[in-house]
Structure formats: structure tokens, C-alpha cells
Amino acid sequence: MKPIALITGATSGIGEATARILAKKYQLIITGRRAERLDQLESELKTEVQKLVFDVRDREAVNNSIEGLPSDWKAIDVLINNAGNAHGLAPIHEGNVDDWDAMIDINIKGLLYVSKAIIPGMVDRQKGHIINIGSVAGIEAYPNGNVYNASKYGVNGLTQGMRMDLISHNIKVSEIKPGLVQTEFSEVRFKGDQKKAEKVYQGYDPLQAQDIAETIEFILSRPAHVNIADMLVLAGSQASATMVNKKS
Questions:
Q1: Given this model, what pLDDT does residue 3 score?
Q2: Catalytic residues
Q3: What is the pLDDT of residues 151-169, one digit of tens each?
Q4: Predicted confidence band at 248 (pLDDT cuts at 50, 70, 90)?
Q5: Is residue 46 one of the residues assigned to a domain?
Q6: Which of 50, 84, 122, 209 is the most buried (most CB within 10 A)?
Q7: Which secondary structure element, helix H or strand E, spans residue 22, and what is its range?
């Protein structure tokens, strides 16, 4: 029987690519807000699948969905905390408070809600692996990214603390910090402005969702005595959060 992996934010980008690549070796619990996308993804995956439709910001929905899994699906071996968003790009004094709330609620509190629903079972079974998707913005702030930076710094701190708390329970905790990845990320940040979103990825070859999915697959493939605890993954043209070698 295949082990079970739960992936948040599986309706697009890194989450969707991860579901496709892990389907070779795992039974999957795919989660997201958009039911129709989960339906489509399920139809294309060649493995056993459970779909959970919820917003990670909704603690009650998270708990009810995970508690409502069939009994033979509750022994989750791998948790991929992928769900996250950036909203807006503005100096701190011009920031939109609703955007701030969304980033803190999704990127930090949502990660915590899902983790709290799953980790006790891993502790009981004395095994598991958690991979949190952070960002280069979690170790290096950039102008106008203030609250997004703070939320990803929070993911970095949480990952380190989780690793310390769970080491005695034989649970691995890892974090991947991607740089510029061409997904719906910028489209969401710029509230559907396609021109602004496309400009972010022009003049160089950005990372693709598949690149991060393959990194997740690699981390999970390591033997029991190895934990890739922390990994920064940048595009070949990217040197830092703010430096990209773009073609003129």
C-alpha cells in the first residue's frame, strides 16, 4: 500500500505540480478552495485520491475536513504545507490592511491550522515528514514586500521550531525557499493585472512549478537517516531576492 501525502494549495502552481509528481509513489489528499480544479486534477492522477475543499484560513473547515477523512486515510505520512499567497506590493504606509490580513491568515495561520490537525497523528505513530514551502523572502526582505516578507520569515521560524519540537518523535521537518517561480503568484499579487504579472517573469528564465515539485520529490526520497532541513532554490539568473540578471 502506498504511503499517504496531503498537499495544500493543490489547485495550481507548485501544489498541482507536486500532486502530479508524487502520484507515482503516494496516495494523495489534495486540498484547495476551488472544487472544480480539484475534480479536474483528480481525474488526471493515476493514484488513489481524496479531495478536501477548504480555505486554510478557516480553522473549523480545516478541522472538519481532516477529521472527516475515511479511517484508512487518516494515517498521513507526508504533509506539504504549500498554500500561500502574496497580496499587493506597496510601501508599509500605503499598504492595504485587508491584504495584510490575507497574507498573515494564509501564510502563517493557515499553515498552523493544517499542521495542528495532522501532527498529533504523526506523533502517535512516531513517524512523518513535513515540508513547508517558504520563500527567499523569508530570509531576505525586499522593498514593498514588508508583510509578505514578515509572513515568510514567520514560516522560516516556525519550521525551525517545529523541527526542534518534533525531532524526538521521529518526524522530519523541511523547508524549501523558492526564488522567482512562474505561477499564478504574481497574478494574485497584482489582483489579476496580467501585464504587471507577466513583466515579473520577462527577460530571464524563471523557475517553474515543476522545478520545486522535483525538489520536494528529492527531499522525500532521502533515506531515514537524512533530512534536507532547509533548501534555497533560485533561478539560474537570480542571485538574491532583489538581483536578477535580465536580458536587455
A1: 98
A2: 148
A3: 999 999 999 999 999 999 9
A4: low
A5: yes
A6: 84
A7: helix 13-22
CATH number at residue 136: 3.40.50.720
Q: State the DSSP string of 177-229.
A: EE-SEESSHHHHHTTT-HHHHHHHTTTS--EEHHHHHHHHHHHHHS-TT----
In this structure, is residue 47 part of a structural domain? yes
Rounded Cα distance, 134 and 110, in Å: 13
The pLDDT value given to residue 1 = 85
Instruction: Say what the alpha-carbon torsion angle 231, 156, 9, 62 is, to the nearest 10 degrees.
Output: 140
Which residues form the domain of 70? 4-233
How confident is the prediction for the chain on average, in pLDDT? 97
In this structure, is residue 34 part of a structural domain?
Answer: yes
| Contact by Cβ (8 Å): 64, 42 | no
